[in-house]
Each structure stands twice: as structure tokens, then as C-alpha cells.
Amino acid sequence: xxxxSMNSVVIRCEGIGKRYRLGQRQRYRALRDTLxxxxxxxxxxxxTALGPKPAGGSRGLEFFWALxxxxxxxxxxxxxxxxxxxxxxxxxLLKILSRITEPTEGRAEIRGRTGSLLEVGxxxxxxxxxxENIYLNGAILGMTKREIERRFDEIVDFSExxxxxxxxxxxxxxxxxxxxxxxxxxxxETEILFVDEVLAVGDAPFQKKCLGKMxxxxxxxxxxxxxxxxxxxxxxxxxxAICLHEGKIVMEGQPRKVTSSYLQNWISATTEVIYDDISTxxxxxxxxxxxxxxxxxxxxxxxxxxxxxxxxxxxEYWKLVEQNTLELGVNVYNEHGIHLFNTWCSGGxxxxxxxxxxxxxxxxxxxxxxxxRIEFAMEVAGxxxxxxxxxxxxxxxxxxxxxxxxxxxxxxxxxxxxxKWTTEPMAAPPKPASNGEQTLP
Amino acid sequence: MVQPLFIAxxxxxxxGKLAKVPSDGVPYPVFAYCAMVPWxxxxxxxxxxxxxxxxxDRLITKVYFPRLVIPISAVLGGLVDFAIACCxxxxxxxxxxxxxxxxxxxxxxxxxxxxxxxxGAGLWLSALNVQYRDVRYTVGFxxxxxxxxxxxxxxxxxxPQRWQAWYGLNPMVGVIxxxxxxxxxxxxxxxxLLAVSVAAIVVILGSGLYYFRRMEASFADVI
Lengths: 441, 223
Description:
The structure holds two protein chains of two kinds. Chain A contains ten helices and 18 strands. Chain A has helices spanning 3-7, 31-40, 42-50, 90-97, 130-141, 145-159, 174-186, 204-219, 231-237, 255-266; strands at 9-22, 62-75, 79-84, 105-110, 114-117, 192-196, 223-227, 240-245, 248-253, 272-274, 287-296, 305-306, 311-319, 327-334, 339-346, 354-362, 370-379, 385-398. In chain A, helix 2 (31-40) runs antiparallel to helix 3 and helix 5 (130-141) crosses helix 6 (145-159). The longest helix of chain A is centred in the middle third of the chain and has 16 residues, at 204-219. Chain B is built from ten helices and no strands. Chain B has helices at 2-18, 28-55, 57-62, 69-95, 107-131, 135-148, 164-167, 171-183, 192-216, 219-222. The interface between A and B is medium-sized, with 25 and 22 residues.
């Protein structure tokens, strides 16, 4: 492949926008209504009834722009990751690029055969056997019969469904169904591939296999657009990433930069929460949360936490019943959703009622850089969660800037403990042979 | 396969025997069945294609392919049943000792016309059905009215001469006449009637295609 074709732009979007009508989908329009209206005001209505997109706005309808003035260029061989929160417009973008729907404004130019994996298993027919469905689904996705025949064994192999190939897919387990569907889609031989969140199928080993397959596709020089909430996958598979927010590109660049800044900016850090009013604070008649914070030891919640700093996580709460025991539990997750550790404390039966404070200290040189999230739960009566927050506190651990030497890349690993290495001599080196006495073994 | 047979038999009993509807000199059952075969193709293809887009909404919102494939495949599906119904025609003809002439070679043209009429109307109705979901209820009604306006149960000859040209605006008239002419050899070669029918087909199919293509872009959003 010449460098020229490597760099040619295969997808170009110029100011595309997609508008949806809100509230219109609850009830389908009845032709009867349109006809009665048409009889009342024939000429005005006829135009709107026959047009593809009635020009509205003045009729009190609400509109929602899923995408707005989005411009994007994708070159041949790029693997572009698209991230963003739910409703940011990621799927709409893929739908427009794969020509399922048309943009309301702007235009998208696509060069080359496209294939899309927007939903695994679309077009599977339950009454047909696995074998027949491979052909059917392949055809729907745009493969020719010859292509499917050539890759048939590969597909079957990948799906791990070989023994059940001649059984109607309605008898398949959902896992088998998904595996077969993904296998067909993954073997599409199109120049441009759109992938929307399909890696969330199957069990862990199969997911790993899917990721591997995606990586393989990415290295074949094909252009891939990949929408995912799995930031780790975006990091490892993509050559470039964009982050969408409310239908616009808010960030663009290296996947790692985009994903971590997405976490910082769009999942905002909350290092302290305070509930001043005891009557409205989360909780119930037994316990109410007053304050929670994460801060460097001897610092305030506004201070930076680096990989070197020990930090303290504290909870202040009202215990409103005398007798019961008290338990607090914390789970800490990193930005890739990996559960780093769990810790819990039992207040013991003697804790008095009143405003209490519990805390623990995380030593420095333990966690790695990146955003972290604290899940918090609290029990009073024993066994019943009185309070539970998935996402009570979030904080960012920054690089301390030392200890790195010349290496400027990211430090791999979920944790980054500072471990002491020791090197000691064990034996003297063997003496070099002095004369010709040595024999060959 | 059973359906056209039974309708033809019912028509024979009530219209042929009791109401004494003329049948252009051939036995009424074979007269009726001969028209039921293409009619069944038409009504099935029309009904199926009208519902085809809405029935495949998941495909439409998830995969791109030319949307025309959907109603066309619905019409083609009707051809399979049609082939079977044609086979049943053979014992019928044997029983009544009717030997088709070389005119039977014209049949494919009439079959094609039937399919195109169904497709043209199906394009309109399927695209309308996406936008207006009550269209599906009107399809059954439309098929019934269309049935009565088509010479399936009665011969075209009962329609007064001066209305024949207007009658031919229903393109199925020319097709059914053509079927009877090709298989049973009754009536005259459908000349001017057929011409009017062909013109009507061009209009229905052309406008259907135009409307369908125009609405195509919004299917995935509206469906």
C-alpha cells in the first residue's frame, strides 16, 4: 500500500447535523388525521404530508439536535475511537456514516465499501440453522456468497459453534447466538468498518477474543470507526480518538489523552460532599451522611494528590440510634473500571449516637495515576445497607514527576507500589579459560 | 394454494350456479379459478409488500442496504405460491377438457404485469405505512374493493362498452382478461384494454418509486 493511499481521506463530514423531533414518537401519525387536516386546508397540508421531512418549528414541536455542525476527516487505515456519554451522538454519527439515516444538514462523503456492526444478530432468522444464518446474515451485512464461502470455516471456528451448525438458531443459547453473530460480522471484508459497542457480548474469554479480532482488523490497514464505553479498548485499539458531547466534538487526538481527559472533564472530580441540613441529608432515621471527602494527608480537598502523597478518605455522619453496630464499606475503582480494593470498618457495638467521623489513610506510592472513584456503603442494623453511593467521591491521582528517569510514557498497571529492589552478589564470575586445555562439550 | 381453490368453488356455487353470472362460455369453476390464480398472487404480494417495511424495522434501523429490496422481495415471495397455484390449474383444465393453445406463452407477460402492479401499489402503501400506521388497516379493505372492481367473479363483457376504457384504468382488468385469454382462449386478445392497463401500471409504478425513493431517507428515523 503506497503512502499516498494510506493517507487519503476516506470519510469526510462537513458540518453534519441531525435533528430529531421530540414527543413525536409516542404516537404514530394516523393517515386519517392527515387526511382530515388535508380536507380542511388542502394546499397547505398536502405539501407537508408528502414531503420527507415536514418543515416544522413553527408548529410548537420540540426539536433535539443529536449532532450539530460536526466536521471530521478520517484517513485510510485509521482506527478512530469515538467516546462520549450516553446521548452524546456517537451512535447517530455511525448511523449517518453507514447511511442508515440521512443528516438533516451538512454532508458526509464516504469512499469505499462500508460494513457496519451496529447491533449484533440483526437479521438472524430463528428458524434457520446456524449455517444458513451465516449466509443470510453475511448477505445482509454486504458480503458476497463467494466471500462467505471462503471465510466460512474461519467464521465457524471463531464462533465456537461448530457442533451446532445444523441446528436452528432458535435453540441456541444466547451466548452462542451472540458469538455466531459477532463471528459473521467480524469477518466482513469491507474497507471501512463501523463498530458500535459490540464487544459487550459473550463471556470474558470471548470478549478478549473479540478485542483481539478488532486489533487484527485494525492492523490490516482497514479504516475502523469504533464506538465504545470501554476506554481501555479504545486506548489499546485506536490510533486516534474523538470525544463527543451534546453532538459536538469536544476533544480529538491521541486515545490515551482523550480518554483520560474525558474522565477528568466529563466525569467531574468530586473530592468533597457536604450535607448541611440534617433533615435532607441522604440517609434515614438511623443514620444520615454529613460530609465525605478525600484529601492529601495534612491538606485540604482542593489540594492535588500525587502518586507519592498519602491521602485520607473521611466520612462524617449522624448516628441517630444508640444500640446498633455500624459498618462502613468502601470500594475503590480506577478509571478503567477495575476494582482496585475493598476496605471496611466495623464501628463496634459501643459506638455512641451523635456525629461520628470515620476515616482511613491510603499510603503514598500505592495507586497509579488517573481518575479514581469511591463507592461507599453504610449499614447500621446489620446486613441492611442504609446508604449506598456508587459514585460518592471521585478524584484524580497525578504523576509526581520524579522517579521516572528518562521514561515519559504512561506507567502501566492498576497500582503503582514503590517497591524496594535489592541486588546482591551471589558468586564470582567464572574465570576465563587460560590455555588450550578446555575441550568442547 | 387452498385459498384460491376454495374461493373459486364458493364463487362457482353462489355466483355461477345460483346467481347465474355469465362466464363467457366456459364452465364457471374453471373461469373463476383461472382468474383467482393471478388475483391471489396480486393480493398476497400487495398485502405482504405493504407491511414489509414495518415488519423489518430492525433491519432498517440497523443495517444499510437499498430499501427497495424489502418490498420487492415481498412481491417475489408471492410468486412461489403462484407457481403452486398454477400447478393446480392443470387438473382443472384436464377435467374440463380444455387444451391451452400457443397463447399460453404470453402468460409470463401477464405474470410480470401482476407483479409490477402489486409492487407499484405496495411501494406506495409500504412507505405510507411507515409514516402513518393506520394504513395497514386500509390494505385489507383496499384489496376487497379492488377484488370487486376486477373481473374475477364475472366476465368483462358485463361492463357496458362505453365504460370499458375507464374500467381498464384498473390495471388488473387487463391482466385478468389476459390470463383468461391465454389459458382458456375466451374473449378476444386484450388489445386496447391492455394498453390502458399498461399505461396505468406505468403511472402506479413510477409514482410509487418516486414516493418511495423520496421517503427512503427518513425510514430509519420514523419507523
